[in-house]
Structure formats: structure tokens, C-alpha cells
Amino acid sequence: MAEPSVPVPPRKMASLNRVRAFTLILLTASSCLITPTSGKEGGGEETVIIGLRLEDTDDISFMDRGFLRVSERSRVRLRVYGHNINNETWSKIAFTEHERSRVIGGIDSSSGDNQSQEDTSGLHPCGIRTSDILILPNIILNRKTSGVVEIEVKPLRKTERSKAYYLCIATSTPAGPGAHDPWTENTWIYHDGEDTKVIVVEEKKFLLPFWLQVIFISMLLCLSGMFSGLNLGLMALDPMELQIVQNCGTEKEKNYARKIEPVRSQGNYLLCSLLLGNVLVNTTLTILLDDIAGSGLIAVVMSTIGIVIFGEIVPQAICSRHGLAVGANTIFLTKFFMLLTFPASYPVSKLLDYLLGQEIGTVYNREKLLEMLRVTDPYNDLVKEELNIIQGALELRTKTVEDVMTPLRDCFMIAGDATLDFNTMSEIMESGYTRIPVFEGDRSNIVDLLFVKDLAFVDPDDCTPLKTITKFYSHALHFVFNDTKLDAMLEEFKKDIALANRSPSS
Length: 506
Fold this sequence. Notes:
By secondary structure, this protein is an alpha+beta fold. The chain has three domains: 10-35 and 44-174 and 182-201, Immunoglobulin-like (Sandwich); 210-356, no CATH class; 406-481, CBS-domain. The protein is 42% helix and 16% strand. It is built from 15 helices and 15 strands. A hairpin with a 3-residue loop joins strand 6 (133-142) and strand 7. Helix 3 packs across helix 7 (296-329) and helix 5 (251-264) packs across helix 7 (296-329). The radius of gyration is 51 Å and the shape is rod-shaped. It starts with 12 loop residues before the first helix and ends in a 13-residue tail after the last helix. 21% of the residues are buried. It is a multi-pass membrane protein.
């Protein structure tokens, strides 16, 4: 019996169905026309074979334009159509390598050089039948009009890629006296049917066993995804960021950064190794898929879909968010492939180092650092006051006195001829300021400075003139230009001296 069947390719089903319909019509017509003849010995009807069609196969076989295409080293089940099909019909079927039109009128070269023109076995194709297609001694009958036989196809010769064979039918009715038809002068006759040609093609040889190729393809897809993800994840971690993480990250992040930093410091070498590995893996994957699919177009489509989804999109989406963790956990594989690709990737990386210079990493100036704090404000744990202090400190060298000063019209001031009575003292206390400018005449004419603490021993009932207090303390006024930088003003504020006492709690 034949091994489990392999489905006929869909694109050949239409042709196969047409052949089956044609064969059925031909069989019906022939049954009406065939008349009983004398048998070989007992006077029974002669077996007449009309045609063949593919029934089942253990390999890739199909009907192509009426011809049967089979692979070498395969077993094929054929349905034989005709009249008076019986249990001995399998023995009346054979195949020849010689086509009818190539031997008529001459001697078949494959029959030998010593055969004469009178040797009719050398004049027709069925004189020498091939042993490349073996008819197995078994047939499954169906009402004497059809039966299923099984053939075994032998391997082709090393120099052959395909070979055609033609059907020969055994007959027990020899030609009558004086007959001149060379095709009936032997018990084997050449069948002229259009669907009786068998083409044996070379067996498709895989580079590796199918199951092993599936394993390799799965592994290559994983490696492709790893190379692609690490290329994005590791190269996005510049040396400066790794140093920052090592100094102020969590314990887990510090451990990850310490593992990655030695490899990431060789940026161009790491880049060349990852890219070379990725290209090598993707190319090998396409070759294996082409070997399985048997079609370059199908292999390109399959490899494109697989590489885009599993080799690019998924790993890069993961590594763009968790590059530090993925890079640290796969650092041994990264070092292995860097060592494996050393002969090709290291010289190229040194050339890039020479041409592009040392990789420093991302460096933030004052403006970029301040903007980064503003942009990341919704995601960090800084409160508004801390952010304002950091912003003010970063802008200290760029801002001037005019940018931060309070306009004169908005300042709380007191006239130099004022009297420190109850109303004036209440107004000073309610203002909330500790230092109050004193002017004479015009508000822009500031002549003195009043400290609120100077009023500690002043009695409002005494109605002391303000000039008495200001002349007694005589605080110095510091005048600066409006374009003075704030860092210079900060140095001015540092010139005063302060005495520090140890607190009782310490």
C-alpha cells in the first residue's frame, strides 16, 4: 500500500479535474465502441487501456498540461482507465524512455549498434522498456473499467535533472500476415494517449532535515530580534548616562550599568558586531526559508514578515523601554558575538574611531539642562519651589539686576520728613518689609534706608522724626548699574561678615 498522501498543489487541481473529465468521457465512448475479441487462450475479451491519471502519492506529484510529473525516489498510485481491467492488468503496463517520433524509420541507438533493419524490436519505442519505473504487482479494481496501480520511481542519473517516460501496453494479439505497421509487430505497443506521458523530475534536496531547519529558523529569528533590540537599546545608552546611573541610580540600575559600561565604552566595535551579526542572521534565515519554500518570492515574503515582526518591531519596542535591563541580562551573548566577529568588526571599528573621533556622549549645557527639567516636570519628584530654585541658580550667570529687581513704582517707601507716630508705625508694620527705602522729594531720590528692627525701641507716642532714627543708624546704600549680572551681585552680598554661635541643642 502507498504511504500517507500529500495534497496535490491547488494550482494544479484545475488541470487535474479537466484531465479526469476528459478521461471519463473517453472511457464512456470507448466502452460503446469496443467489441469482444478472442482472448489469449480462453477466448476472453482483450484488455484495453485508454489512459492514466494521478490518484495518490507520497511526494509532490501533479498533472501538468495532461502530463504526470513525479519526483524521483517516490511511490505514486495511478488510476488506469479502460475496458476489461482485471487483476493481471498491472503486468501489461510498462514504460519506455524513447519517444515514438524519434525512432520511427531508423534503429534506436539505445538498442545496440549490432541490430539490423529487420529487427523490429529496435524500430519502435517499446522494444526496450525501462526499469526506472517499476510497476508493483497489485491492482485495486473498480467494475472492470478502472483500477489503481502503484508504481515506484527509481532515482535519476547524476547528470539528469528530469526525464520523460512513455506508456507501453502489452497485447496478446500479434499482427496478421503481411502487416507493415511497426507498432503492432511486437506484443508491446506504444500508447498514443495524451495523458500517458510521465515526467520524472529531480528530487528536491534540502540543505538540512526539515525539522532541523524549523529549529534553526526559530533560533535565527530570536537572534535577529536580539541583535536588533540590542542595537537600539545599548547604543541609546551613551557613556555619560551610564556614569550617571552608576552614581545615583537604584541598586539594580547601578548593577546593570556596571555590566554594560565596559562594552558600551567601545561603541563602534559594539555597533559593528551587532550589525554584522544581524545581517548574517537575516541572510541565513532567507536562505533556509528559500530551501523550504522552493520559491524565491515566497521566501522573500516569509522572511520579510518574520524579520519585520519578530526581528524588528517587537524587540525594538521592548528594548526602547527596557534597554538597560535587557542589555545587562544578555551581556554574555553580546561579548560572545563581539569575540566571534572580531576579525571583521574590530578593524572597521578602529577605522571609525579614527575618522569620527572619540565618542563623548550627550552633554547638556545650562539651557538644555533647564529645559530638560521643565519638560520632565510631570514625571519627576521635584516640587515647584525646588524647581524654581534650580532654575534661578542656573540662570544666575545670564540674568541681570534689571531682570529681577522690583520696579520703583511698586516699592513700599517712606518720605524722609515723616514722623514715627502711631499711624506711620502701623503702616510700616503692615507692609511686611524689613528694609524700607527713604526718599526726599521725588521717589527716585533715595537718600537712606530704614531697617524695621531699628524701630524696636521707638515709642509711637513720642512722635519721633524719621530723620533722627536714620541719622543715628546711618545704613550704607549700595548702588549698582541695571546691567550688572546676578552672580556678581551674589559676590557682593557675600562680603558682609556674620558670627556663628553654637546652638544649645548641639
